[in-house]
Amino acid sequence: MTVKSGDGVALRENVGWVALVGGGPGAADLITVRGLNLLRRADVVVVDRLAPRELLDGLRSEVEIVDAGKGPHGHNLSQSEINELLVDRALRGLRVVRLKGGDPFLFGRGGEEALACAAAGVPCEVVPGVTSAVGVPALAGIPVTHRGVTQDLAVVSGHVDPSHPGSTSNWDALASGPGTVVVLMGVGALDKISHELVKRGRPAATPVAVIQAGATARQRVVTGTLADIAAAAEAAGVRSPAVIVIGDVVALRDEIGTYRVPD
C-alpha cells in the first residue's frame, strides 16, 4: 500500500526513511542542529570520504556504518550501489542517514539519491549543509561577495578541466565577468584552469587563493594570482581536498583575518 506525501510523491507504508545530511565544510561542529539530531536517531549511516568522521564517534554501538568512500580517483561503492543500499535499508524499516561533506545538493549527487528514494516510494528528507564553496573561503577570511567589490558568485566543478571537450562549464562567461569564481575538485587542474581563464580574458593579475583541508586543523592557504598560483600551489605541495577562490575578494583576507573564539 502507498500513501501520498504533501508534494504528491507516492510513499510506501511501514518503511523507514532516508535523510540526506550535509555534514558541512570540514569541522564536525559545523553540521546543522537538524542534521545532528537525525544522525543520532539513525540505524544506518552511509558516509562519504569528505564527511566529518568525528561525527561517527558518538553513535550508538549497534548503528551500521557503511563507508561509501567516494573520491576523485576511485570509490568503495558505485553510485548505483549507494542508491540501492539506501533504498534497501529503508525498506527494511530502518532509519538511514546519508552523511555527506558540504551540502548534499552541491556536487554531492544528492539529487540522484533523492530520485532513487522517490522511485522506490521511500521517504527522503534533505538536510542542507554549509557548503565548502562558501564556508571554506569564509574560514580563510574571504567573503565570496562583498559590497563594492562583487555581487556575483559562480561555483563550478574543476573535475573536468576547461580545455577538455567534456567540460560543460561556460568558461568564457567566467573569464569575462568580474565576479568571484569558486572551483571545487579543481586542484589537479589548477594550471589549466588559470591558463584558460587568462586566455579567455580574465586579467592575469586577478587574485587567487587555494585553501587546502578547509575547516579543519590542517587548513592552510596559498595565495597568488592567475599568473602564478599554479606554481605557488605546486611549490607548497597543495593536495586535494582544496577549494580555489578566484576574484578580487581574495585581497580582503589580509584585513579580515581568521580569528576564532576560544572553545
UniProtKB/TrEMBL annotation:
Top-level taxon: Bacteria
Extent of the signal sequence: none
Tetrapyrrole methylase domain span: 18-229
Annotated EC: 2.1.1.107
Top-level class of the enzyme under EC nomenclature: transferase
Molecular function in Gene Ontology: uroporphyrin-III C-methyltransferase activity
InterPro entries assigned: 4pyrrol_Mease (IPR000878), 4pyrrol_Methylase_sf (IPR035996), 4pyrrole_Mease_sub1 (IPR014777), 4pyrrole_Mease_sub2 (IPR014776), CobA/CysG_C (IPR006366), Siro_Cobalamin_biosynth (IPR050161)
Gene Ontology biological process terms, A to Z: methylation; siroheme biosynthetic process
Organism: Frankia nepalensis
Pfam families noted in UniProt: TP_methylase
Keyword NAD among UniProt keywords: no
Assigned keywords, A-Z: Methyltransferase, Porphyrin biosynthesis, S-adenosyl-L-methionine, Transferase
Protein name: uroporphyrinogen-III C-methyltransferase
